């Protein structure tokens, strides 16, 4: 080896050594990621000792007659199978045998039967325990077992099915409570750990990394996705970061086989704590609502109406008498902000509104026919969804086709005053027939066209006037209403 080659080899060796052992050389410094790689996998032993005493096992019982069919036989294996199929398939274990009636007992005597198992963790030293709502849902008795083998009968303080969060209370003091972490500090790729009772195996520890954040699987919850091994019985247990803080509640898995497949979901602890605070205060959760049916804003719609960016929540329908209607929200509006917070995607809106205290006055920014406007809305309390009734419509005489509309494959007619009152619209034209380009865009007979290319239409004359100003060689955006809901279509004339 000549002198020059030896010098280059020696310099390279020094550089590698400096990076591996955390030193510096000529301004080169080891990064945290490199340091972690050198150290290897994290050691969870201290975390288990720290958090383990705060994680509990939860067993639920239901009272049933000893001769009732479809009950559990009570063996641990069958109990776990029942929990497994109830949670992930919504039905009892197929082929479950009828329990044998015990001799010398009246048939109608009620006795507790094992129902399911889960996990939970201690919120406070005076006995409040957090778990999943589905763990305690329908249970007649809830038994909590601490890691020191003490067992308590628990009282259900409250449960919220929308977020799958529940709080139970045991009569004990001086309990080791968990520390609550900051979900905003959680990073994708960060190590996390779970402790629970999969298949009844108490105090089982599994670990992995955060696979994704803000994973949408429901209206009110942006889930944390991990690859931590979660199985039936883990439900309700804590997801813990390397600082020993709880950052989530293990709740769901994605599985085609019923077993763990590397995709698990946890409820963010900040969302869960908001729910638990209300449950502990009043036993129930109140959420805000404004009374709109929403949908995603597609890229094509955003471009066609001049929104510029794919964002916001498309209002497909406004409930009669709702806060949104009183505020002036209309079908076809795109809500881009709520209380100053940007709506990046439609699922952001129900979360923001739901977390708003009923009775609060909030601001809405909507994009309507090419421009933004601000509205004020008084948030109401959420209520069960109402099913809109379909009222039969009397058919009007066949209208004379519009030449402008026919070019797009449309035959439209004016709405009568009775129809406007019935539909609760100020204007619009009714589609009597949709063929060719209009049919390809998804329009059909009975639809009500409300606007064309951001221009509101109140009559066939307005409709024709709007079309006359457009370049019909380009896609034309049409806002229309079908039934109770409004949506956009892009009509692409044949060339």
Provide structural commentary.
The protein has 495 residues and is α+β, with helices and mostly antiparallel strands. It has four domains: 3-40, no CATH class; 42-96 and 108-285, Thrombin, subunit H; 288-381, PDZ domain (Pdz3 Domain, Roll); 403-491, Pdz3 Domain. It has 13 helices and 27 strands. The strands form five sheets. A six-stranded antiparallel barrel has the order 1-2-3-6-5-4. Strands 8-9-10-13-12-11 form a six-stranded antiparallel beta barrel. Strands 15, 16, 17, 18, 19 and 20 form a six-stranded antiparallel sheet that branches. A hairpin with a 3-residue loop joins β11 (238-241) and β12. Mean pLDDT is 78; it is low at 3-28, 65-77, 87-103 and 384-396.
| Sequence of strands across the biggest β-sheet | 1-2-3-6-5-4
Q: Summarize model confidence as the mean pLDDT.
A: 78
Into how many domains do the coordinates divide?
4
Please tally the helical runs, counting DSSP H or I stretches of 4 or more residues.
Answer: 13
Can you give me a brief rundown of this structure?
By secondary structure, this protein is α+β, with helices and mostly antiparallel strands. It is 22% helix and 33% strand.
């Amino acid at each position: 080896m000549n002198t020059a080659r030896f010098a280059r080899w020696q310099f390279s060796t020094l550089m590698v050594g400096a990076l591996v052992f955390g030193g510096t050389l000529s301004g080169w410094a080891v990064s945290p990621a490199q340091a972690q790689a050198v150290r290897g996998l994290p050691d969870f032993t201290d975390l288990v000792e720290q958090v383990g005493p705060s994680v509990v096992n939860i067993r639920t019982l239901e009272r049933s007659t000893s001769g009732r069919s479809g009950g559990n036989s009570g063996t641990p294996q069958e109990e776990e199978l029942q929990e497994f199929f109830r949670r992930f398939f919504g039905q009892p274990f197929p082929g479950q045998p009828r329990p044998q009636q015990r001799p010398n007992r009246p048939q109608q005597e009620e006795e507790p039967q094992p129902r399911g198992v889960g996990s939970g963790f201690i919120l406070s030293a005076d006995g409040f325990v957090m778990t999943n709502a589905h763990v305690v849902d329908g249970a007649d008795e809830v038994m909590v077992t601490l890691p020191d083998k003490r067992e308590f009968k628990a009282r259900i303080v409250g449960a919220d099915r929308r977020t799958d969060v529940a709080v139970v209370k045991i009569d004990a003091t001086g309990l080791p409570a968990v520390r609550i972490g900051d979900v905003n500090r959680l990073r994708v790729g960060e190590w996390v750990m779970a402790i629970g009772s999969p298949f009844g195996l108490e105090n089982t520890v599994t670990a992995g990394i955060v696979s994704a954040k803000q994973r949408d699987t429901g209206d009110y919850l942006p889930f944390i996705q991990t690859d931590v091994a979660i199985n039936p019985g883990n439900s309700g247990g804590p997801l813990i970061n390397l600082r020993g803080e709880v950052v989530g509640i293990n709740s769901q898995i994605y599985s085609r086989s019923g077993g763990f497949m590397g995709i698990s979901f946890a409820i963010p602890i900040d969302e869960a704590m908001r729910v638990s605070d209300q449950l502990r205060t009043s036993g129930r959760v109140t959420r805000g609502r404004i009374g709109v049916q929403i949908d995603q804003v597609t890229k094509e719609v955003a471009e066609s109406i001049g929104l510029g960016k794919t964002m916001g929540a498309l209002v497909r329908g406004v409930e009669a008498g709702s806060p949104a209607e009183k505020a002036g929200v209309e079908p076809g509006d795109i809500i881009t902000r709520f209380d100053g917070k940007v709506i990046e995607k439609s699922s952001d809106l129900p979360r923001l509104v739901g977390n708003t205290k009923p009775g609060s006055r909030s601001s809405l920014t909507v994009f309507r026919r090419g421009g933004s406007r601000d509205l004020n809305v008084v948030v109401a309390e959420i209520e069960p969804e109402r099913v809109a009734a379909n009222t039969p419509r009397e058919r009007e005489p066949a209208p004379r086709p519009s030449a402008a509309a026919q070019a797009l494959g449309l035959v439209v007619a004016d709405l009568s005053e009775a129809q406007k009152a019935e539909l609760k619209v100020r204007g619009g034209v009714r589609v009597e027939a949709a063929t060719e380009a209009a049919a390809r865009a998804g329009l059909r007979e009975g639809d009500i066209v409300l606007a064309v290319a951001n221009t509101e239409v109140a009559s066939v004359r307005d409709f024709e006037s709007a079309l006359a100003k457009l370049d019909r060689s380009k896609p034309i955006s049409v806002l229309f209403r079908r039934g109770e809901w409004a949506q956009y279509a892009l009509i692409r004339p044949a060339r």
